[in-house]
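Example record

The entry below shows one chain as it appears in the dataset: sequence first, then structure tokens.
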Amino acid sequence: MDVINKPMKNEIVKIKASDYGLEESKAAEIESMFLPMLAKMRELEKEFNHILKLPINPETCQMARDLRLSYVTIRTGTDKIHKLAKDFYLKGGRFVDGWKNAQAFASGEKEDVLKKIENHFEIIEAEKKAKLKEERIALVQQYVEDVNTFMLDEMTQPAFDVLLAGVKLQYFTRIKAEKQAEADKLAAIESERVRQENIRLDNIRLQKEAEEREKEITAEREKVKKDNEEKERLVEIECKKNAEILAAQQAKADKERAELLAKAESERKEKERAEKELADKIALTEKLKRDAELKLQAEQKDKADAEKKALKAPDKVKLTEVIRNLIIPDIELKSDESRLIEKDIRSKFVSFKLWCETQIKTL
């Protein structure tokens, strides 16, 4: 079998105390508890290696079983040692905690007493301030809504006296103003009641006067109605007569107006025709003038461009000749770095010549 034929290490167990943060002297105490089991495992090591070399048969299987049970006994024994040792150190840890807590409790009480002695005067001063604040709150709170607005325990007595006088003045001033406002409100209500009563009495009087006046007006209206009916009848007769006269006059006026409008329309059209004819002549004259000016400007520009081109022609030839004669002679270089630089220079030189030719063409 592969498991049996595998080479096995002879090393049993090795634990480093430093891996667990323990000193060797402290770790030796723990290690001594496991040494008997380690010794037994070493005793079984020779038998274990012997069985690995034997052929597999019933006798070998029985030997393997017996040896395995021996290892089980050692392992369970080790578990018991582990449980007892761990329980001991857990109880020891709790024991250490008990010492620490007892010392902390005893020291804490003494620290509290010493702290009170240390801060004796500060405590007295704080109590004085607290008492002073309570006394001042009792004096001030009846005059203000929020006493926390003021730092009563930090104020000097003169400053507090000024504050107390001020809040008292504000309080009584406000109370007086509220009482005055209430009195003014009641006076206004009474004044309004009297005014409404006067209005009611005036309305009753005015209603009676209105009823009497209405009677007079009704009688006057009847009289006027009769007079108006008679006047209307006479006016109707007169209006009918005047309407006939006006109709004849209107017909004559309409005829004369139509004739005047027709004449004015004819004159307007003639005027518009003459104005349009004049405007067309002016526009044509202006167009011919502009066309002549544009033609002259174009001829002048063409002449100037030709002169400028003729002036630049020799320069263009000279510059072209210069660029064509620009060359980089072939040279023999030793290093690869120098040859790469030469290649880059030649590439940029060709681009430079092309750029120069493009610039010359713009002349």
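Notes for this example: Residues 2-114 form one domain. The first helix runs from residue 2 to 5.
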